Amino acid sequence: MTMHAQIEEKVRQGLQVQHLQIENESHLHRGPATDSHFKLVVVSDDFEGKRAVARHQQIYGLLAEEMQGPVHALVMHLYTGEEWQQRQGEVPASAACRGTPAR
Amino acid sequence: MSTVVETIKEQIESNSILLYMKGTPKFPQCGFSSQAAQALMACGERFAFVNILENPEIRAELPKYANWPTFPQLWVKGELIGGCDIIVEMAQTGELQTLVKGAADDAPEAE
Question: Which contacts of B9-13 are long-range, i.e. CB under 8 A and separated by 24 or more positions?
Answer without folding.
Answer: B9/B65, B11/B48, B11/B50, B12/B75, B12/B78, B13/B78
